[in-house]
Amino acid sequence: MYCSPLRAGVAATALACLGLIASAAAPAAAQQPAVVGYSVSTLANPFFQGMTKGVVTGIKAHPGLTLINTSANGDANTQATQVLDLINQHVAALILNPINANAIVPVVRRANKAHIPVFTLDRGAACGKCQVNFLETDNVALGKEGADFIAGRLKARYGTIKGNVVDLEGLLGTTAGDDRERGFATEFAKLSSANPGLKLVARQAADFDADKGFNITTQLLAAHNDIDAIFNGNDDNAIGAVRAIRQANRFVPIGDPKHIVVIGIDGTEQGLSAIRKGQMDATLSQNPLTMAAQTVNYIEQYLHGDKAGIPAHQFWPHVLLTKDNLDTPEVKQYGLWGDQVAAQ
């Protein structure tokens, strides 16, 4: 079953994807649990905290699986060393969330030679079929939809699509960061070509980091007194931007002609809180809890020999969140993972 993000029915799609494999998985036959090695790029990012929780919970749902859980703390060399150690421990499968799509390739190849299946989650490895499954959100679509959201808000403000926009890029070199930027940049170029009054006044990488987002936005606000909107590669970037806007005394409520539109990506608890307070306009939410659970389901399926039904590449559904739809039944069914993780 191939799953893609839809503007309507995203929750039903996610639940169908998740339930399909879970219902089909056979009980583990081995007396000893199969060991799954997991390497997450960092736990400093709330999204990856949620994803790790999803992996841990997913493993617990399968009595035939057990987990070795590692974090690379944002260092590609550390991640390579950790993954090599997992390979040397002869784990039954690997779940990798690479720091860098190219840097992870040599150790993925080592896993391939050791006949250890590799499943990449949220971020992929730049070696194609070296991965049994690469499960992610359609990051190009996230970037495109971010540009479209900003265009819609500016049209509502001015009656036409115009204004000065800042692009706070994510962590380039990751599949998520690169693809989101490509989606945003391509769509923004089309919009600005058709609407000459729409300008990109700055593009800088904030690396999915709130402090960098704050520092860059602070500098840009000092240099530009007429910024209309900021696209952010993730919610951490956005939270940093919101903090800078408030500290510079440039915050005005949504709907005010001088309001700076801020949109992020992920659906973190901080992002949801900022949206509820009216400080942030929107986020394009992923759901790392259900994404991670699906990857674990695929591992269970693979280890029981049912390999044909596992897609090599899969897009998990996402949803646009604003203050207006946070409490709708569809959004609640999709899952506000940021709230769920914060409450536990």
From TrEMBL:
Cell location: Cell envelope
Keyword Cell cycle attributed: no
Source organism superkingdom: Bacteria
GO cellular component entries: cell envelope
Keyword Signal (UniProt): yes
Keywords in alphabetical order: Signal
Family under the similarity heading: Belongs to the bacterial solute-binding protein 2 family.
PANTHER family: D-ALLOSE-BINDING PERIPLASMIC PROTEIN-RELATED
The protein, known as: Substrate-binding domain-containing protein
